[in-house]
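Quarterly update from the structural biology core.
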Amino acid sequence: MMTNKNVSTPQQIWTVAKWEFLHFFKLKQEIISKLIMLLIAVIIYFFAANGTDLNKQYSLATNTKQQLFDQLNPRFKFKYVEDINLVVKDLDQNEFDGALKYDAADNTFTLITFEKEAWQTSLTSNINAALQQQRFNALNLTQQQQDSLAENINIEHTVLNELLKNQADKGQTYTAFGVLILLFVAMFGVFGQLFVSITGEKQNRVTEQLMATMTPQTWIDGKLTGQILLAVKTMLGTLISIVLSMLFFTVIIKQQPLSLSFVNWSMLPWFVAFAVFGLAICAAFMAAIAAGIDDPNHSSKSALMMLPIAPIAIAFFIMDEPNGLISIVLSYLPFTAFAVMPVRMSLVDLPFWQPLLSLLLSAGCFYYLRIFAARIFKMGMNMYGKEPSLKAMWRAIFK
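Predicted structure, tokenized:
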């Protein structure tokens, strides 16, 4: 039975998508990279655990009798000596871990140790805090006056619009921007891989051979599906690395329970959905631009592939005016909605239909954008050796 080569089939699209995904994704390398990361974390923990002993006490010689030492951590014991220089001279052999030398003329302290260790940073911080308190005391200020000088002045801001969410709980905002940061990381991966993949294969005449067995639409659909899967994998991989780092520093180093209370779990599915549609739209746009590039080293169109990064940057500037006209328009415009709408959702109580409409518009935009990318790709293949102009690409879209 003869098959029509001009008709795309899901099996063909999935074959190209799987090839594109596996071309860049290597499970063995992913596992090795995570194991190396864990190994580095274990090594850091080993040195941190050996360099910090919270129960150990340190003995220091000093040439001054000040009440300053009474305010320091009990781990540090000070002993007055007449000649501090003798202690410093034999510091590597005597009973002291260090010497704290006081210069009465300049009213300064110098910590002298034979080795550099972690406890010395803690000691200098303690001394600085105690000196600051000593200066407050010298001014004969009351405790209330001292607290007033040290306290930051906070100006409360009350907004009467009941649609605006209570910003005392910023979990939804942290979640939205966290997803945007992951999206930003994934976007750079898609940019590089699509650019190299499409332009490189065109130069090597690989796609010419494949066009004999499938349509340009099938090729582009497979490319986009594979790159979207890779981008989602990048986001998940980055997220796993962040969680592992948090586990390491919070649970192992600080010996505290890990709390994920800053994540707004109810909003997370919405944010992820917008991120996936955003990746799809940006990947289709990048594919369309890359398809019109003949020589990546001398093309002026390469800079256009950075445009999808702009909506992520814009989202950070609408926080102060989430109900402004510009913010509302951008939250429905498919090219910016994937970044702006999640931020608006984190700041404003929106009815269900608004983010749903934004998602549907984004889905429609991606559907037609992939078709436009395939038409430009077909034109680019027919103009091998000559790069089409932006005007020619625009005509090819609506031909």
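The chain has a mean pLDDT of 75.
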